[in-house]
Amino acid sequence: MTDFTLYTATDAPTEEGRSLLANSIKKFGMIPGLHAVMVEAPGLLKAYNVVGDLFTDSSLDADEVTVVWQTVNVEHDCHYCVPAHTAIAKGMGVGDEINDALRNETPLPNARLEALRDFTLSVVRNRGHVDDAGVQAFLDAGFSKRQILEVVLGVAQKVMSNYTNHLADTPVDAPFQKFDWQKAA
Questions:
Q1: pLDDT tens digits for 35-89?
Q2: Residue 175 DSSP symbol
Q3: How far apart are CA 163 and CA 70, in angstroms?
Q4: Does the pTM exceed 0.85?
Q5: 60-166 belongs to which homologous superfamily?
Q6: What angle is formed at CA 43 by the lines to CA 19 and CA 121, rounded to 5 degrees?
Q7: Which letter does DSSP use for residue 144 in this model?
Q8: Does the first or last residue of the chain, that is N or C, have fewer Cβ atoms within 10 Å of its Cβ?
Q9: At what angle do helices 81-91 and 96-104 cross, to 10 degrees?
Q10: What b/e sequence results for 96-105 when a residue is b if at least 16 CB atoms lie within 10 Å of its CB, and e otherwise?
């Protein structure tokens, strides 16, 4: 496996990268390991941040954003993102009932969130080729055509982070280690 460097705000390979990591410190009080790896290609970290901001500013609420993020993280078996997004979800006020159901792949507390998870899984597993019945089930659950596309936005963000973490075997940051996770057998 290729070893990736975990850069800091002082040793990142470019000025743009150092600036991006300084912003990570301002936003999170630390440089998440994911950011420390991604900054090797500053455009990737910049894109990840922009897409993340756009997704969290979408019409989906905090519970729904978490369902999309964690559904993709769990499906992709991301050792880093599941614990990180457990902490992020808690900070967003998402309840343990939702977090635990997503992490453990057990039923969510309501049919609407379950429909969102099913649709997100269909988007990921079928590479966007969701059949008419799957789209209609999502719409029938009270979601909109706009939200179909916002799921795509959330999936795109998670592809960037999940794939990076797989390639770099990013170590889980200390604040997230208490939410360690392994995919159920």
A1: 999 999 999 999 999 999 999 999 999 999 999 999 999 999 999 999 999 999 9
A2: G
A3: 14
A4: yes
A5: AhpD-like (1.20.1290.10)
A6: 120
A7: -
A8: C
A9: 170
A10: eebbebbbee
Q: Where are the domains of the chain?
A: 60-166
Judge contact between 85 and 70, C-beta under 8 A.
yes
φ and ψ at residue 117, rounded to 5 degrees: -65, -45
Tokens linked to 59 = 């019409």
User: φ and ψ at 180, to 5 degrees?
Assistant: -45, 150
* Tokens at 31, concatenated: 């440089």
Tokens of 42: 């500053």
Q: What tokens were used for 104?
A: 């453990």
Up-side HSE of residue 143: CA atoms within 13 Å toward CB? Answer: 29
The tokens for 5 are 């460097």
Burial level of 37, CB count in 10 A (0-12/13-18/19+)? buried
User: Which residues in 4-159 belong to E strands, given as ranges?
Assistant: none
